[in-house]
Amino acid sequence: MVSCADIIAFSARDASCILSGGKVDFEVPSGRRDGTFSNASEPVKFLVPPTSNLSDLVDSFVVKGLDVEDLVILSGAHTIGRSHCSAFVPDRLNVTSDIDGGLAAFLRGQCPADAAPGGNDPTVMQDVVTPNDLDKQYYNNVLSRTVLFTSDAALLTSEETARMVMDNANIPGWWEDRFEKAMVKMAGIEVKTGDQGQIRKNCRAIN
């Protein structure tokens, strides 16, 4: 029997494989059980905002058993998808030392200065080079200062994480291999097994 928690983990695995053209391909252990309590505000406490500095990012990962390398590797998922303007307005609309002038100008043309959730809040691609591919382009974007979030640019603010960014950008297969391992590690955070929780009959509600 497959739980709802397993379905989510398997979906992340399959999406990674498809979007990477098979370059990211890993096995995820099954056997998770579903929780019996859900609170929409609970996960938000552990999601750091895209305006975070490196120290806050590291702290948020460590509390969940992940390390600095996991942070850098999993940030690579920002190579795909779209973001609402409110996630980075107004921080990224002006030219600063950590954002390319061309990107700032592009974002000013796409995003209203008063972008806010629930209001006038368009979306933009996170990676304009290979927007539909799960690949290592994100790290090239970090190096060229063409990333959307302050938290992405923060990876260059320490020698350790900057070196990791360069390795992921320059060494073939380096990021894909580590992304697979980091995804498996993340999928094992606070997993319920044995007699814990339940296997839901309807993923939208407890039994």
Please explain how this structure is put together.
The chain is mainly alpha-helical and 207 residues long. It has one domain: Peroxidase, domain 2. The chain contains eight helices and two strands; from the N terminus they run αααβαβαααα. The protein has helices at residues 4-19, 54-62, 68-75, 101-110, 137-143, 150-153, 159-170, 174-187; strands at residues 82-84, 123-125. The chain has a two-stranded antiparallel ribbon with strand order 1-2. The two termini are 15 Å apart. The model has no long low-confidence stretch (mean pLDDT 94). It is an enzyme of class 1 (oxidoreductase). GO terms for molecular function: heme binding; lactoperoxidase activity; metal ion binding. Keywords: Calcium, Disulfide bond, Glycoprotein, Heme, Hydrogen peroxide, Iron, Metal-binding, Oxidoreductase, Peroxidase. This is peroxidase.
Mean pLDDT over all positions: 94
Tell me the CATH topology.
Answer: Peroxidase, domain 2
Q: Structural class per helix/strand content?
A: mainly alpha
Order of secondary-structure elements = HHHEHEHHHH
The figure for the number of domains is 1
- Strands, count: 2
Shape: globular
The Rg value, from CA coordinates, equals: 18 Å
Q: What topology does this entry show?
A:
Layout (H helix, E strand, L loop, with lengths): L3 H16 L34 H9 L5 H8 L6 E3 L16 H10 L12 E3 L11 H7 L6 H4 L5 H12 L3 H14 L20
Antiparallel strand pairs: 1-2
